[in-house]
Automatic annotation (TrEMBL):
Keywords linked to the UniProt accession: Oxidoreductase, Peroxidase
Residue ranges of domain Carboxymuconolactone decarboxylase-like in the record: 46-127
PANTHER family according to UniProt: CARBOXYMUCONOLACTONE DECARBOXYLASE-LIKE DOMAIN-CONTAINING PROTEIN, SI:CH211-175M2.5
Keyword Transcription (UniProt): no
An annotated Gene Ontology molecular function: peroxiredoxin activity
Name of the protein in question: Alkyl hydroperoxide reductase AhpD
Organism of derivation: Deinococcus metalli
Highest taxon listed in the record's lineage: Bacteria
InterPro entries: AhpD-like, AhpD_core, CMD-like, Uncharacterised_peroxidase-rel
UniProt xrefs under Pfam families: CMD
Amino acid sequence: MTEISWLAVPDDASAHEGVRKLWQKAGANLGFVPNVFRAQALNGEQFLAWWAYFNLLVNKDGFLSPADREMLAVVVSGANRCVYCEVSHGAALRGLLDDPTRADVIAVNWRHARLGERETAMCAYAEKLTLNPADMTPADLGTLRTVGLDDHQILELVQVVGMFNLTNRVSSALGFVPNAEYHAQHR
């Protein structure tokens, strides 16, 4: 098996019972277990707590569309140069947009993707919060409101950006390797 983390990765026998159940569910739904699920499983309870919040923000119905959340994920991951998240969430964005070229352009440089005013404002906000969090001001929220986002959507946007900054840092710090399956998805 290819090394997927710079730390030890538990196997089926040593993984937390709840983690094993999540692996089984992911395998049934996706056809593979994401390497991030295996790599973070070393501390089972912590992984499951992270997954519960991540799943709530990214995979459940919310105030932003699934495509909006994945777009934010790839913008943040690109700014952070996180290989795992850029590849895995780039694949998800390709599927949600049903336009692999547009999704790839967003992932490489969202400014070249010919986004609408709303999406442009969201991407600019996500990039600024990622790269210069100390520079955030109330005016940044005003820009989001101007393009039609309400406070619920803004809060969710900030939470998604925060989650991906956390996840990017964990993935990059520990050398997580994306599954090969992601590279071919939705092409």
